[in-house]
Write a structure and sequence with these properties.
single chain; alpha+beta; YaeB-like fold; four-stranded mixed sheet; 2 helices; 4 strands; 38% helix; globular
Length: 97
């Protein structure tokens, strides 16, 4: 079954912030590597959304670790995968909503 991918406004803002942060510290090359890695992860998620575990802290969300710095939280709704939040792991986990 093919799932459709949807993004929350907050996850879009998270992504923009992360990309801005990468640009501030690194180069276009690293930004493109991050985008490619994220695209690959999202393809895995939409092809098999149960692949990644449910979050212990937020059981209605699943979490996919993109890198040691970044985790993608998402939920499955019928035929959709809804990206809820992209979390920088160096931040306080209490910020996840």
């Amino acid at each position: 079954m093919g799932y459709k991918l949807r993004w929350s406004e907050e996850s879009v803002q998270n992504l923009d912030d992360i990309i801005d942060d990468i640009y501030g510290k690194w180069s276009e090359k690293e930004v493109q590597q991050f985008k490619k890695k994220l695209a690959n992860l999202l393809e895995l998620i939409i092809s098999n959304p149960l692949l990644f575990p449910a979050s212990i802290q937020y059981p209605d969300l699943r979490k996919a670790v993109l890198s040691k710095q970044t985790t993608v939280f998402y939920k499955i709704e019928k035929d959709r995968v809804y990206v809820s939040y992209i979390h920088l792991n160096k931040r306080d986990p209490g910020r996840i909503r």
